[in-house]
Amino acid sequence: xxxxxxxxxxxxxxxxxxxxxxxxxxxxxxxxxxxxxxxxxxxxxxxxxxxxxxxxxxxxxxxxxxxxxxxxxxxxxxxxxxxxxxxxxxxxxxxxxxxxxxxxxxxxxxxxxxxxxxxxxxxxxxxxxxxxxxxxxxxxxxxxxxxxxxxxxxxxxxxxxxxxxxxxxxxxxxxxxxxxxxxxxxxxxxxxxxxxxxxxxxxxxxxxxxxxxxxxxxxxxxxxxxxxxxxxxxxxxxxxxxxxxxxxxxxxxxxxxxxxxxxxxxxxxxxxxxxxxxxxxxxxxxxxxxxxxxxxxxxxxxxxxxxxxxxxxx
Length: 314
What we know:
Distance between the termini: 81 Å
Number of strands: 26
CATH superfamily of the largest domain: Tricorn protease N-terminal domain
Number of helices: 1
Shape: globular
Structural class: mainly beta
Number of domains: 2
Largest sheet: 5 strands, antiparallel
């Protein structure tokens, strides 16, 4: 009988101990979650930055500000100040901002456990982890476009991998499956791609011969610009913005479905042109081929230089 009581007491003590441990684990999980949320709310995942951006391979606008995919990670121009995303020091290429974060390819820093090249990855500047969507360890997509609020991703695959040959491909499910697209009508060397924020069938391509637009999922393209080196592709719901260099730099707003165009004012770019462009609520940012960056708060009427020859400007 005494042994039975001892056994019951032992079970009770174990139950109490396990219950206490469980509550402790749950409390630690809650504290960790609260800490992560506090850091995100207070933007503690960003720290001050000044210096050289190195190569830039993408530009977009997110909640934190204008995000530049630089050689040494994501740099953000936020309310007149330069910041860097502490969780993302990698050399991102094909960088695309989405409503839930960003998509990118590129190369991880040497100390990272990530496979090189990155293939197609999804992430958030406020979180350290990346989600490998396709071809990690296989491909580096320099030319990639993705919809802000749809799951379409377009790539120009330069080197064959385990699934794709060289050429144009698209995925309508964030990289789970891929299909080859004809891309008829494109002329010149492919430089850049952009996808409409909500209509995944509408995609633009910039080449050294101009800007080409498709509204049938990339099967066929129509030239919508003069001949010249194109760049700065950026869609909002109603417009496609594009830059062109024909001896001088221009920036154009093309009305989708109406084919109407209007000029976007630029800063004085001498022997330079727009490489990347982003826009949000009449605020604009550009990065140029010669490594300068500017921001405007009034639709391009006035510009402030924030990068000169790759170096941040205070």
